[in-house]
Amino acid sequence: MGTTAAAGTEGRGEAVGEEDGAILQLLDSLDGYISLMGSLSSSLRQGWLELSSARHSMGNSRISSVLFDMKPHSSATTVDLTVSTASDADQATQPHFSLLKWGSRGDEKSPSVEVDGKTPSQASSSTIYPAVAADNQVRKKRSKALSMFGALVPPKLRVAQGSFETSLEAIIEIANTRSTILSALGRLQTVDLRS
Amino acid sequence: MANRVQIPTNNSALIAMIADEDTVTGFFAGVGNVDLRRNTNYLIVDSKTTVKAIEDAFKEFTTREDIAIVLISQYVANMIRFLVDSYNKAVPAILEIPSKDHPYDPAHDSVLSRVRYLFSSESVSSGRR
Predict the structure, then answer these.
(1) Helix-helix angle A155-194:A2-58, to 10 degrees
(2) Which of A2, A60, A105, A184 has the most Cβ atoms closer than 10 angstroms to its Cβ?
(3) What pLDDT, on a 0 to 100 scale, did the predictor assign at position A69?
(4) What is the phi/psi pair of residue A64, to 5°?
(5) What architecture is domain B14-118?
(6) Could you tell me if B49 lies within 8 Å of chain A, comparing CB atoms?
(7) Where is this region: Disordered (chain A) (predicted)?
(8) Number of Cβ pairs closer than 8 Å across A and B?
């Protein structure tokens, strides 16, 4: 009888520890979520202001949603989705989002690109600048994305593009924080059911 | 966590938008997608957009396999609040964002509402113990 009571106390202790861990994770994630929403609001406000300035200089018809449906357009920036699964059946799968901006990850190593038309074997005397080449590619893709608004776009529009890119980064972080919140909520509900 | 396995889906998924014109315009150059059949990953909401159209767009974007995140202006989400709050899948993620004329209100956010509901039911059940 004493052994049964001790085992029951130990089980309740484990459940309390697990619940505390889930609550801490939830509260941390909530704090992060609200902060990120604040950052997103700030970058979006900046983007709207710059877009309005660009519209003022170019005219309403040049920056309008009517331009969007003209021809097929592929998304230059996409999301890579990874799903983590746990061996413990109680823990739900948690998706993880990462941004593929302009078709590449920010943390990928850029492949070495030949410069001046020389192959890598001939490049012993010339320097290879993979980061510069990658930057040039991104710059070209950025300009191409704005080409729907015309061949010449004002600097304000380019700046607005940068603000909305920053907003996209915040959005990805918010999506990941949301996953963490939902995962912690799921764990709490599981612990609650067990107890 | 040692027992978690990362499974890359090898899918580049899209970000869908249900928002006002300025927000969609701002994001379009980066994430806008129009395919050969003129199917889009966005819905521009203005004064003439009906609630049915918003509901249909929400249902379409949340069931498409090529969409990972759905951005919806919070004031638009309020028009279809029941639908947004009853959505409980992890993917696509539904994110309520502010709009130019309607700042973000944490009180209406569906994720935060779920947390509030859990803690209110927790406090009720702990009171009963």
Answers:
(1) 160
(2) A184
(3) 64
(4) -145, 155
(5) 3-Layer(aba) Sandwich (3.40)
(6) no
(7) 101-127
(8) 171
